[in-house]
Amino acid sequence: MSQGPAARAAAHEAFHAPFNPWLIAVVATLATFMEVLDTSIANVSLPHIAGNLGASINDSTWVLTSYLVANAIVLPATAWLSSLIGRRNYYMLSVALFTLSSLLCGIAPNLETLVFFRLLQGLAGGGLQPLTQAILVDTFPPRMRGMGMAAFGMTVVVAPVIGPTLGGWITDNYTWRWVFLINIPVGALALFLSSRFITDPPFLLRRTGPDRWSGDFLGLGAIAVGLGAMQMLLDLGEREDWFASDLVRVSAVLTVVGLVFGVWRAFVHRQPMIDFRVLANRNLALSCVYMLIFGAVLYGTTALLPLLMQEHLGYTAELSGLVLSPGGLVIAVLMPFIGWVVGRVDARWMILFGILMISWSLEWMSKLSLDVDFATLVSARMLQGFGLAFVFVPINTIAYATIAAERRNAASGLISIARNVGGSLGIGITSTMVARMSQVHRTHLAEHVTATDPAATAVHEALRARFLAENADPAQADAFVTAAMGEMVDRHAAMLAYVDQFAALAVAFLFLVPVVLLMQRARPAHRPELVVE
Length: 533
Known about the structure:
Helix content is 74%, strand content 0%. The chain is mostly helical. Helix 13 packs parallel to helix 19.
């Protein structure tokens, strides 16, 4: 006979983690930090991987795509697997398989095997984010839950920021293989510590009996295929010229059919394996909407800034990483403070303040030019980090404020899916719009680079005089001028396309204001188990 709400509430209040919550936080986030880091650490290593394994740059991007697709596929099954074998066991299994697949990636002899092992790595590590979030929610008592979310926030927000910097440094000083091999000692340590210190609380529901393997596998498979196909669609779309490619068209069809059918099955099946009904909770549903846009802005800007700096401002991978890192440092410093404050003030006002700070930083970025200096880029990114610290912890605290303890695995899975889908949408849409708007701006700028335009004529004559002074003959000087002015137009067109996207992201983030105002206030003293059945 199942426990009533009062009994579940009493079990939750009586539960105390057998070890210090901060010790468990360090143990739980260790492997997750490593897994999140791997979503971005290999980005700057792709040219080295391609050259070492005799592949093209385009082919080497499958090293990134396979990992992200596998992550998207395994996320929907996280809650069901946790209830089947236990959250602690699933966490340890994920860490062990992730560490093993990292070793295999590091010793891969060719690109094909590397892509396959990255697929395994993504499948193994995809569940670590929602598992860690659920562990921290249950480990910290309600009055300290903000501190637990701060520890989780430093993991999933800071890791993608430092990934390119760390990956570039490792690749430049050692070899790309160490980008994967550094996971082995970290994974081994995380596996040992988790076996000692992580436990499942008694109120978590566990599937038992001969029918524990039953469930809506068809619906789960459909959603997994839909999410994986969507990741493929967004990752390959711009590179394959979108619907001109058969692969992109197939991915689009699988995305729509898989997600629509899978969600429908989850609502009509007697034993759904993804609990979408938990979204009846207003705070959780609005938090998922928030995380969708939050992920798009966070990952979109994290992807755009390095490209802008390296392709158009002449920055090295390491120098562009130094622009991003101070923003991550701001987040790491502020989050513990935010975690302490969030239980003492209305978290909604903190989120609104963070939204305004992030939109301000993006509006600042929308005014950048090709003459921007290092200090301005760092300052804009630090302002964004300042705002991110004020939104991530409070939103996760509100999301779990009125969720029954036994349904937190399902809730953490849905929040992680929303954040990852948002990140994929942000990267896919912004990269596409940069490419398209660069062409539009180039056309408009080229209309003014004519012999009748005084400014263009002045630049033309200045460049021609410089090339003639360098002993070029007149015909050669004219060719050099044409090439130089064409490059100037391309760079300015690209810059305008980038700032367009920063402006669009600033406006998109402001749409979260009404979402936050519709949320219920998180009250540390209340009993969430009595609110949601």
